[in-house]
Amino acid sequence: xxxxxxxxxxxxxxxxxxxxxxxxxxxxxxxxxxxxxxxxxxxxxxxxxxxxxxxxxxxxxxxxxxxxxxxxxxxxxxxxxxxxxxxxxxxxxxxxxxxxxxxxxxxxxxxxxxxxxxxxxxxxxxxxxxxxxxxxxxxxxxxxxxxxxxxxxxxxxxxxxxxxxxxxxxxxxxxxxxxxxxxxxxxxxxxxxxxxxxxxxxxxxxxxxxxxxxxxxxxxxxxxxxxxxxx
Length: 231
Hints:
The chain is mainly alpha-helical and about 230 residues long. Helix content is about 60%, strand content about 10%.
């Protein structure tokens, strides 16, 4: 292992607040599929995809536990939207960006030069994989410590249960007896690892526009844009 690789793992441990007894887990968590080699690359083996799978489940459990503890009077109808927001791709990418997680990722040469490591999906997946690695290395308590530290700001901002912009927009127009908003994909371009969707939403004679790396996120951005105009 090179000095650069050692330094990258050390920085990752610092960002995660956890020293790994099994560094191979951390190395796997930081490896994008583009950095895997040969047949392993084609199958996704050696990349962080397996750890992402378990990290997603661990995050869901720990956030649910935290919400029930923090909002003891709320029922599922309010806890659900809170949970969905905190484990969303957008929230994960924001947290990963905030701690500078892109600095420790291992990508293929062409992907690294193209800035793939800054992409929301890549960052979100890697953060989930890292959480999965922490869990497998040291158990639920260690994973809980990281989540409660990294997600503290996002949790504090949830004074009221968040409402999905598409849901809020639909309710706004239905309450006024208007037709439902209509979404249209204006363009879908870019490589598979970094797509860009441009979508508009029209309702009541007004239009909102959104851009994002997934169709769903672009629709939400368009809905939020139109809601801002209505308000």
